[in-house]
Amino acid sequence: MEAKVALGGTEDTVARTERELGEERQRLADAERRGRLAAEIQDRETVEVAQRFVAKHRARVGVLEHKLAALREELALAQRELADMQAQLVRAERDRPVTEAERSAERAWRDLAAAGGARPATDVRDELLQSELDRAAREAAADRQLQELKRKLKRQ
Questions:
Q1: pLDDT for the residue 125
Q2: Whether residue 142 sits in one domain with residue 75
Q3: Count of domains in the chain?
């Protein structure tokens, strides 16, 4: 459970960083556009300010890109570790040692099968009989509904 929670936290951090990166890229584009506009009107002071902002935002974009790459690697690692833990859990559950009572019951079923008996969960005849009973019950229910509908129609 802790691994799933941690994975969710990492996914949230990746999403937040992606949003921050998008916003920072927009700020960079805005600063570059302002610098071009200032250059067109030959406002050297505004061009210099815009260049400082472009440099600042470009550096921030670089940092966020590196951060996002590292977070994605961390997320992939966490996903692999979680999948591995889940596979181990499945194997452990499947391979868990049975209790003495379960071993004893299994021996009794094997002895019964060796003597010609059938285990209820694996008896094909039992399943066929149950299927026939279920079908007969469904047919009887359908007949009752049909009779009820006929009675209603006669009244109308």
A1: 66
A2: no
A3: 2
3-state secondary structure of 116: coil
For the cut 70, the answer to whether the pLDDT of residue 122 exceeds it is no
The phi and psi torsions of 149 (rounded to 5 degrees) equal: -65, -40
In sequence order, what DSSP letters do the residues of 79-100 get, joined into one string? HHHHHHHHHHHHHHHHHPPPPH
Does 101 reside within a domain? no
For every residue of 33-68, which 3-state class applies, written as one string? HHHHHHHHCCCHHHHHHHHHHHHHHHHHHHHHHHHH
CA angle 94, 96, 97 (to 5 degrees): 135
pLDDT digits (tens, 9 = 90+) for 54-72: 999 999 999 999 999 999 9
Q: What is the mean pLDDT of the chain?
A: 86
For residues 24 and 84, membership in a common domain is answered with yes
- Is 103 inside a domain boundary? no
Question: In terms of Cα–Cα distance, which of 27, 26, 54 is closest to 39?
Answer: 54
72 with 124, same domain: the answer is no
* Same domain? 23 vs 84: yes
Whether 122 contacts 130, CB under 8 Å: no
